Amino acid sequence: MNEIKIIIAGPRGRMGSEAVQLVTATAHFKLAAVLDHKNDGMMLSDVAGFQSISNVPIYTDIEKCLQEVEADVLIDLTTPEVGMYHAKTALEYNVRPVVGTTGFTKENLAELEDICREKELGCIIAPNFAIGAVLMMKFSQLAAKYFHDIEIIEMHHDQKLDAPSGTAVKTAEMISAVRETKKQGHANEKETLKGARGAEYDGMHIHSVRLPGLIAHQQVLFGSDGQTLTIRHDSYNRASFMSGVKVAVETVMKHNNFVYGLENILD
Amino acid sequence: MNEIKIIIAGPRGRMGSEAVQLVTATAHFKLAAVLDHKNDGMMLSDVAGFQSISNVPIYTDIEKCLQEVEADVLIDLTTPEVGMYHAKTALEYNVRPVVGTTGFTKENLAELEDICREKELGCIIAPNFAIGAVLMMKFSQLAAKYFHDIEIIEMHHDQKLDAPSGTAVKTAEMISAVRETKKQGHANEKETLKGARGAEYDGMHIHSVRLPGLIAHQQVLFGSDGQTLTIRHDSYNRASFMSGVKVAVETVMKHNNFVYGLENILD
Amino acid sequence: MNEIKIIIAGPRGRMGSEAVQLVTATAHFKLAAVLDHKNDGMMLSDVAGFQSISNVPIYTDIEKCLQEVEADVLIDLTTPEVGMYHAKTALEYNVRPVVGTTGFTKENLAELEDICREKELGCIIAPNFAIGAVLMMKFSQLAAKYFHDIEIIEMHHDQKLDAPSGTAVKTAEMISAVRETKKQGHANEKETLKGARGAEYDGMHIHSVRLPGLIAHQQVLFGSDGQTLTIRHDSYNRASFMSGVKVAVETVMKHNNFVYGLENILD
Amino acid sequence: MNEIKIIIAGPRGRMGSEAVQLVTATAHFKLAAVLDHKNDGMMLSDVAGFQSISNVPIYTDIEKCLQEVEADVLIDLTTPEVGMYHAKTALEYNVRPVVGTTGFTKENLAELEDICREKELGCIIAPNFAIGAVLMMKFSQLAAKYFHDIEIIEMHHDQKLDAPSGTAVKTAEMISAVRETKKQGHANEKETLKGARGAEYDGMHIHSVRLPGLIAHQQVLFGSDGQTLTIRHDSYNRASFMSGVKVAVETVMKHNNFVYGLENILD
């Protein structure tokens, strides 16, 4: 495989530091530079936690970085605002963006899609880089065509504030897009304790378990006469995101179009 | 082992017919007679479905049955009203009752306990004969001493009317009897879809899944720092009750006291 | 939907009797006749277990049946030898075969494919009609592209003779067709009890659990850094096959080609 | 509760550093001193990683430590050799040992038991402090009395060398101590791929799954007619051991005898 030269924006963040590890540990990847909002002009090896990584300059100005450093791909793991600016600037310099963010607006996405079409460049925006979670959602959507009764159980540590989780709602949305609405359970079903049947989304039921010890887990259950099908994802730590970043970097070099969502490059 | 002579009340019911199978298939059990509300004076082999079972007379009158037939144990799988009358009459004739019913009142239980004490006879009343389910509840109660955060997921076919299931509520009650009330989850937890966190019972959360294909399943989840413990029972058919009936019959012959609940004879 | 007229071969078998139920219970299906090796000339309602099904003649000779009865689809749930003869004869009479059998040879399949091409008729041969199991295998094949470490745990009742199950081997074969061979586990892994790591198939490990109470269950586990993905199928009874037969009948009417394996019509 | 004064031996080890956290975070525990093979005479706050912990002196000589520091309990998380010496010395000074080690010989255990009897002091030696794992083993032993068919599936990360895991073997041993040997599965069972049925221990089957992403998980499956019971423990990180250490410290103060194995203090 040809070497892919990569710039990482946000190298000191939780995701960013994992990405630095990924890129430096992958034989055909080369870390060309990093973008950070401080430490301009220093080398990455001067920063605590990165001492062993040599020859990687730090830039605070993306334009200067792109003028001075030869690169193929920009991995951006910052914020939606910065990410949008970074992605547009990278495309101007013919560098392909791989951006992990949940916060882009429809207008943002449309604007990037236009630039990609015009410049015939690849760009991947992904709210979730955990391949296992993305496959779970994709398979759930496929299975919903044949199994019309579906319940989702998501399980997280008890410090999580929101229920259900974003992934559970996204899964239900994706299923809902292909399944006819169906009121599930017995027509005369009755809750003797309120809430027992969980939340309802387009007829599906979603249950949120919260316990100390748990990390991030979800199962999607499908039932029909005499059988059940279960698709389960367990995420134990942030390393789980990196295989998705790797696939995205490799894919963005092969395709000259705009893609939103990792599920659209997994086939 | 000594042969145990058994009368079964309700032989044509769903549980009763399984019990007939159990008794006739167990080497040290002997089916002495059956009690049915019809077919008085016939033989069980005259009834459809029981042709192969020889020498078992049918009675409609329990007094007549107990006068004519020598028996050690009465297995009653009828209704609470009939079961109470049967149990009392059996004890009068020094026959030990094993009764499967959920409907006895506190007064019923107290009355039977008194008779057992007076006559020094064993008697077992069990709302649930599935040993696996009873062990699940018993273990859950034990585990609750060390794991204070607990959620219950029960899963049944979608023709079930009530949620949560009786077993889930019984499990929560048993845990609640030994655990200090605890409000679980994050203090600022928020349901963005109503019901997501399930039903609450004394701080525990209970989730009821209903899908075609499922039969009767329950898991009890315990979480603490860095670990989870899960106890799960899957019931696939009524045969699951028979091992409990067998243990009850063997136990009722050994002990001369009244017992309510299979959990109190499993040690 | 247009009514589909159906002939069922093997109506008294375990699968066949489920198929009779399916066809008579489906609004747009009509049971036109059955093929049986006995009871020629009788009506299906004359046979024990089918009293309620009216107006369905029984034939022992398929040619006579196809000459006298107007039909769109033949569902064959007999044996490979009979199934092959039935399928060929049905195609001659422009009736589309849906055949459930594991025993066809490559020559059989090639011959049927030729006839279908020539006559421009649909025909579906499926060794497994359980949609959930087929989706599990299909999803496993898709996931193997991104998760290269895979183990299969199949669990069956303890009266099963062979280990691993046919479905487990089929799953491993399908994965193997798309995954590079990989020796899994630690290079210096050591079994202190022989067999602990299970069977090996092209580097994957397969584990066969046998316990009374279990029916037919399989999970395929995929692991990578920080995450696992699990796809599980539970089959509780033969009703699980019927949704697959239904999909096959509907599909065989729409497509004018030969298909082997339910996985090729689920998309 | 009365304050319990604690000395920790091995504070810089993986388990030891968790124990320092536990003791300093528990209201009724007080860290009186630590034993380390270096840094004698320094304060713990001088050591990297412990800066925030004040007033805890470091000793390399246990005798000197016990002479100068008032303590109730010694938590030892070192090696079997050092642990044995530490435990004996602590008892001489009327300090109760809580030792986490798998390596004590029968002679070691007998010697400590004698000292405890003579001095009427509590002492707890535990090879495994994960309460969830210990409860799983204890419940498995209880369930084996009613379910005679048992299989164990243990699942770990793919860098583990030995299969099966120590916990799986310990579980099988504990079950074996109360269960009659039973050859499980069909009498004519046949492995078409060698190893499929896993390892055998006294008739039970043990299966070892190894995948990247997994941490440390075990399930014990029990089957009988129409039902299965499953007990599962998931350990995600070393914090899981600390609740067991806490229970052991509290218990060792209450009882004046020798105990081997956490299972004997959980009731």
UniProtKB/TrEMBL annotation, chains A, B, C, D:
Pfam families, sorted: DapB_C (PF05173), DapB_N (PF01113)
Residues of the Dihydrodipicolinate reductase N-terminal domain = 4-129
Active site per database record: 156 (proton donor/acceptor), 160 (proton donor)
The organism sits in which domain of life? Bacteria
Provide the residue positions that the database annotates as binding NADP(+). Answer: 38
Where are the annotated coiled coils located?
Answer: none
InterPro entries reported for this sequence: DapB_C, DapB_N, DapB_N_CS, DHDPR_bac, NAD(P)-bd_dom_sf
What keywords tag this UniProt record?
Amino-acid biosynthesis, Cytoplasm, Diaminopimelate biosynthesis, Lysine biosynthesis, NAD, NADP, Oxidoreductase
So, what pathway does this thing act in? Amino-acid biosynthesis; L-lysine biosynthesis via DAP pathway; (S)-tetrahydrodipicolinate from L-aspartate: step 4/4
Q: In which family does this protein belong, per the annotation?
A: Belongs to the DapB family.
Q: Which HAMAP family match?
A: DapB (MF_00102)
Its name, as the record gives it, is 4-hydroxy-tetrahydrodipicolinate reductase
Q: What is the species of this protein?
A: Neobacillus vireti LMG 21834
Q: What is the gene name?
A: dapB
